[in-house]
């Protein structure tokens, strides 16, 4: 039986002129537990040494509801200040537009402030991929686009993406942008398959967006499945994992990467060995039958 294509080690980031690894590392929990700069640097090295070049953070990472806003960016900035040569080895992505205690704010005034603050915390003169974290329904996409195009023109950011946007919201913003979007970041996992069937991935392929999958392990539920559905998906992944001598999480990453949209799973682990291990997902091969077995388990019903 024929095998699905092996994902490339790197892929173009839309029309940005940059290439990114087919797996990313995310820093949602990067600033937890009083991590030292030296410990943080070890995690950054683990990702880069494994060939993971896309590092994804956000200004709200580290916020606990009362404080810590910007902590993940600031910690990464300290790592880069200590080892400046690391900056050129990575494609640095961050997000903004969530403004505690407000829900979301993409007014021109705040977006400009947020981008400048991220640059300052990250101790860099450019952000390679800047993404709107969640859509602000009260912001007109034309005004948002004007602010982002100005930031591109000023050299503060190199490319643009969105996170948690609907297809219509993505199209509306993209229609006003001079520098078109290159990435979209929805939640995708073997337990969260909406994107496969609601048109989001089809739209991404049509307009050249790289899908960055947050929570590719279903918020950890794949590692400790409880419901019958979760267990069925885990079992389908385990059959491939056992045959190819990898863990279930590696099989889950590779399952996403087998999709023709070029899904880039964002590994959320903050353990160096698991970050490094994630790169082995590039070597896992799927047959169509095996891939659809996982999808059917996730749907909980046979295909039409």
TrEMBL record:
Q: What InterPro entries does this protein map onto?
A: AKR (IPR020471), AKR_Detox_Biosynth (IPR050523), Aldo/ket_reductase_CS (IPR018170), NAD(P)_OxRdtase_dom_sf (IPR036812), NADP_OxRdtase_dom (IPR023210)
**One MF term from GO for this chain?**
oxidoreductase activity
Source taxon at top rank: Bacteria
- Which cellular component terms (GO) are annotated to the entry? cytosol
Where's the NADP-dependent oxidoreductase domain?
23-291
Entry-linked Pfam families: Aldo_ket_red (PF00248)
Q: What is this protein called?
A: Aldo/keto reductase
Q: Which organism is it from?
A: Sphingopyxis alaskensis (strain DSM 13593 / LMG 18877 / RB2256)
């Amino acid at each position: 039986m024929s095998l699905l294509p092996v994902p490339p080690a790197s892929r173009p980031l839309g029309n940005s002129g940059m290439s990114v690894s087919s797996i990313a590392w995310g820093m949602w929990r990067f600033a937890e537990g009083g991590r030292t700069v030296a410990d943080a640097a070890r995690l950054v090295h683990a990702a880069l040494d494994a060939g993971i070049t896309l590092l994804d953070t956000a200004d709200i990472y580290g916020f606990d509801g009362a404080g810590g806003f910007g902590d993940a960016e600031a910690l990464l900035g300290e790592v880069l200040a200590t080892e400046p040569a690391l900056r050129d080895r990575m494609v640095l992505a961050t997000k903004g537009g969530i403004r505690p205690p407000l829900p979301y704010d993409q007014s021109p005034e705040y977006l400009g402030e947020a981008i400048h603050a991220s640059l300052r915390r990250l101790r860099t003169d450019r952000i390679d991929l800047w993404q709107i974290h969640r859509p602000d329904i009260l912001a007109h996409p034309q005004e948002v686009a004007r602010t982002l195009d100005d930031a591109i023109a000023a050299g503060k950011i190199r490319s643009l993406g969105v996170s948690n946007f609907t297809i219509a919201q993505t199209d509306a913003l993209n229609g006003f942008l001079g520098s078109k979007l290159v990435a979209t970041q929805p939640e995708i996992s073997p337990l969260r398959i909406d994107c496969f069937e609601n048109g989001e991935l089809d739209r991404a392929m049509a307009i050249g967006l790289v899908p960055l999958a947050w929570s590719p392990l279903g918020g950890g539920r794949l590692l400790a499945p409880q419901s019958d559905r979760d267990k069925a998906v885990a079992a389908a992944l385990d059959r491939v994992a056992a045959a190819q001598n990898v863990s279930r999480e590696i099989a889950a990453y590779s399952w996403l990467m087998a999709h023709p949209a070029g899904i880039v799973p964002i590994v959320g682990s903050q353990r160096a060995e698991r970050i490094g291990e994630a790169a082995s997902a590039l070597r896992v091969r799927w047959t169509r039958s095996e891939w659809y077995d996982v999808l059917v388990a996730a749907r909980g019903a046979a295909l039409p």
